[in-house]
Amino acid sequence: MFFGSVNRRAALGRLSLSAVLALAPRLASAQTQASKGDTAVTQAPPPAVPPPEAEPFSVDLLVERARGMAAAAYVKPSAPPSISGISYDDYFRIRFRADHDLWRDRKPEFRAEFFPPAWLYPRPLPINEVVAGLSRPVPFDPAMFDIPGEHADVAKSWGGFSGFRLLWPLNQADKLDEIAVFQGASYFRSLGRGQRYGLSARGLAIGAGEPNEEFPDFTAFWLERPAIDDQAVVVHALMDSPSCSGVYSFTIQPGEDVVFDVTARIFPRTTMTKTGVAAMSSMFLFNVADPSPVEDFRTAVHDSDGLAIWTGKGEHLWRPLQNPRAHRLSNFPDEDPKGFGLVQRARTLEDFGDLQARYDLRPSLWVEPLDGWGKGAVHLAELATTKETDDNIAIFWRPEAPWQAGEAHVLRYRLYWGQERFASPDARVFRTRTGADAQAGLRLFTVDLQGGALAEGLDGVEVEVEADGGTVAWKDLSPYPLEASARAAFGVKPSASAVNLSLRLRRGETPISETWRYLWTP
Questions:
Q1: CATH number of the structural domain 428-520
Q2: Can you spell out the DSSP letters for 247-303?
Q3: Is domain 17-40+51-418 classified as CATH 3.40.50.300?
Q4: What tens digit of pLDDT does each residue of 478-513 get?
Q5: pTM of the model
Q6: N or C: which end of the chain has fewer CB within 10 A?
Q7: Where exactly are the structural domains of the chain?
Q8: 3-class SS at 192?
């Protein structure tokens, strides 16, 4: 299980290939090698067998298929044949051959490549290409892969692909870079220009952060062939799980940020009380506010350092992530949120001191609902871990009203992979520190903010602090030696096992900063 057992590599089929690449330190220096240095290709030889027959394709047909699936009992996929002998290292020695790229014979810059069904991803999935309203399976051939000689025979038992990646010249006009990966359950990931893989998204989470979490699967894909000069590529996925079925459509447009427009059509089989929409997963091990649980030479280790929320009423919230000593769940009720996401605000090499993993280059991911989502809450799950290979952070939107069997739910939203989007125009938090005053029995906090109205100085600016589960003993506001910056500091005397803290700056009655939220536990 994702949260029952947090080792992401042990969760069979639940993370993309690039998830492992992005977060394994010894492979970090190879992450940028997903690009190809030469866009010229060699034509593959003609197929030895006739191409498969085409079938009519439309999203409406796919939606009716998913609706019919939800009306019937869930059928668990049969277990794939056992494939032994492929280790972690072996899997990453297998390479897809560029002369078999999908769309390699056309000028448009988009390409698609495919992953073998082995290691953590043994189940082959139907992957189809759509051209002019007709769908054909992408033919599978072990010859598409360069396979270490000792495993060449193993490839003969493969019956298809386990996922795919999309390529586009993201960083240089003459090089193709990986811009999206779909592999494992309903996981997918992307990144912005000049970045390395970090956090991941998934189509739907059910019971994330709780026992018996359910992992819906993307069970088949349809890739629409891009037209000449298309600026986006379209992918459709059929989803299935014991609780629901559905169809996801992704319009993926690369640029400075890579933007996914998502339409999710979900059909519950049962009453769903633990739905997690627009879910994403990340890693937070430590930073200056949360010391490392193990000895480490680095200043910080995390793919994301905070949860940002833009509420339906227009308030900007910032919740620093933590690596707690025990599993924690938090939620932030809202109605029709304007957006939320996991953000990496630490952006210099010295914020981390890691020349290999380069956590300063990890993407932020922002969700922008394109329709009103009604009442619900953004949920945050934080797990204790001692490993940077564990995805111990998850967030998602949970509707307030349960979804009932027989209903249909359509959600449209936009994902921005890259730099932080839609941040508060007011002062923003860039660092949180905490410590103890043992003599006074207080917990001390400093919150450093920058930007917005702080450029006008601190005249008339006050600190507003609330502590649910404690008493604020003192508070202070001082200039910080950076442009348009200030440090808010305060001491809290805890009176409960957990203290929910809130802080913002105001000038008169007008807030001039985002709202800092923090959950402190001893």
A1: 2.60.40.10
A2: EEEEEEE-SSSEEEEEEEEEEESS-BSSEEEEEEEE-EEE-SSS--SS--SSS-EES
A3: no
A4: 999 999 999 999 999 999 999 999 999 999 999 999
A5: 0.90
A6: C
A7: 17-40+51-418, 428-520
A8: coil
